[in-house]
Amino acid sequence: MLKVVNLALLVPYPIAWAAPLMRAGLLPLFGLEEISVLTGLQSLWATDIPLALVVTAFALFAPYLKTIGLSLLHFGLLSRRALPALHLLGKLAMADVFLIAVYITLAKGIGVGRIETAWGLYLFTGCILVSMLIGWRSEQSRPINGD
User: Fold this and answer.
1) Beta strand extents in the chain (DSSP E only)
2) Does residue 44 contact residue 51 with C-beta atoms inside 8 Å?
3) Cα–Cα dist 79/77, whole Å
4) How many other CB atoms are there within 10 angstroms of residue 129's CB atom?
5) How far apart are alpha carbons 15 and 9 in whole angstroms?
6) What is the block-wise mean pLDDT of the chain (147 residues), using blocks of 10 residues?
7) Distance between CA atoms of 87 and 140, rounded to whole angstroms?
8) Are 67 and 101 in contact (CB under 8 A)?
9) Distances (CA, A) of 115 to 55, 61, 84, 104, 112
10) Which of 6, 50, 62, 87 has a CB 3.0–4.6 Å from the CB of 92, allowing a cystine?
11) How far apart are CA 91 and CA 87, in angstroms?
């Protein structure tokens, strides 16, 4: 069951990256602009390349590499000794969701504009949480292929 659910995560991750995480606008009277992981990264690459590298690693590479690594583990193509590294990748991926939550909280506290969370934030967070659960269950399960 873990194999199937983990492999299935490879589909919603890219959808979550393109889905709107939030809608933001300067004043309540004007329309809100949708912000996704990808549009946020595009903006960062244009203004702050070092931060863009870090956020790209957290938002895109860490969760996807963890999912691929767990799949390799589940199919006996990767040693269980790789679990600590996969666990670290999961923590890095969750750091991105935390950063998004902090930005939303800060923006709402300032009160200059308007921010609404969108369905993509829930999808992205759900993917990360399911991946964390799969990682935890993988650590609890019996050794695969005698590792």
Assistant:
1) 20-25, 33-36, 114-117
2) yes
3) 7
4) 12
5) 10
6) 92 94 70 81 87 86 92 93 88 72 65 79 89 88 56
7) 13
8) no
9) 21, 27, 37, 7, 10
10) 62
11) 6
